[in-house]
Design goal:
Blueprint (H helix, E strand, L loop, with lengths): L2 H14 L1 H37 L5 E5 L7 H8 L6 H10 L3 E16 L2 E11 L3 H4 L4 E4 L4 H5 L4 E4 L1 H7 L9 E4 L2 E9 L4 E2 L2 E2 L3 E5 H8 L5 E7 L5 H15 L11 E4 H44 L1 H9 L4 H37 L8 H27 L3 H6 L2
Parallel strand pairs: 3-10, 5-7
Antiparallel strand pairs: 1-11, 1-12, 2-3, 2-6, 2-11, 4-7, 5-10, 6-7, 8-9
Amino acid sequence: MKLWDIIVLASQALKAHLLRTSLTILGVLIGVTSVIAIVSIIEGMNSRVSELIATMGPATFTVDKFGMITSNEQFFKALKRKDLTMADFRAIKKDCQSCDEVGAAANTVDKVKYGNEKMNNTQVSGLTANFTDITEFEIDEGRGISEFENDHSRQVTVLGASVSEQLFPLGNAIGKKVRIGGNKYSVIGIAKPRGAILGNDLDKFVIIPLTTLRKYFGTGRHLQIMVKAKSPETIQETIDEVRMMLRARRHVAYNEDDDFAIVTSDAIMDMYNKVTSAVRVTAIAIPAIALVVAGIVVMNIMMVSVTERTREIGIRKSLGARRKFIMLQFVFEALIMSAVGGFIGIALGLISAKILADAGSLPFVISPVAIGGGLVVSTGIGIIFGLYPAMKGSKLDPVEAMRHE
């Protein structure tokens, strides 16, 4: 008997018990679909976060009061620190030898309005003119803030893409005057769209000169200092210099911790990976358990099939069918069910991942590892969990098997 004949016999046997076959395929399908969808979403999330963090720039870091807070204890400790001041910013800008650019930023939230159109709870960022040189931030239309406008607290603004679309659905925002809080600002630029992540609109912001924000929104806003090193290779040297300058200015004793925080893009990425690693393992483990359950279902179904077909096995063996061909037929039956469930599961998993990615404003990432893993696991289930019933069926004594009712 040829291998093709065994595959045909296995297919015919599965077709004869279509309901049982379909339910077995469904078990494998659900597990593979879950794995593919979850891995693709995790890959999309990682890609989006990496992309956003990269906009900070590989040679850039920020100094602020809080830094990356991961516990209530850290938060309350940071809350007691002194705020960074404009004097700190000016000192670093003037005296830092290894710094390429030094800027500052402060933020608040307010309403932005033009005519009858408005956008509530919009982030208002006050920035120094060199923010486009320090970060990877890009202007899509118009221009950024100038040094003159920052020095003289001019009422000019760069709109985020979402704000521009909301207030000016027909375009032509440049040159118009929008109201931010209680004052009017001339629109000089529109930022390049950054998209969204998990429903959070990253383009819902406006940028105004830092001095203007401090003038109209108050000087008590939390200040961040942005520093760009001369190259990614010298960033640690620059961090050390800025750290020593601030410790000296703020009179921090040699045996005391910093009373400020320095944050780099690498540190943010490391923190993200630490926070999400347990979630990733759990998210993948759950559908993996479903695949194991599917494998047990395959084994039970094949055991039932062997029991029901005991008489058939006895007749075939009495007519000369060899043991290995009997075993191969049952293995192929399990393998076909698992492979079909795997292929359908991969297709449905990718479709599900696409739908979820669009809903969560994430990039749709097709993971070759997940697809390859899905195929290997699904076919492996067929072989591993189908082998025991196949061996049991092939070992039946033909005389005893033919007596089975």
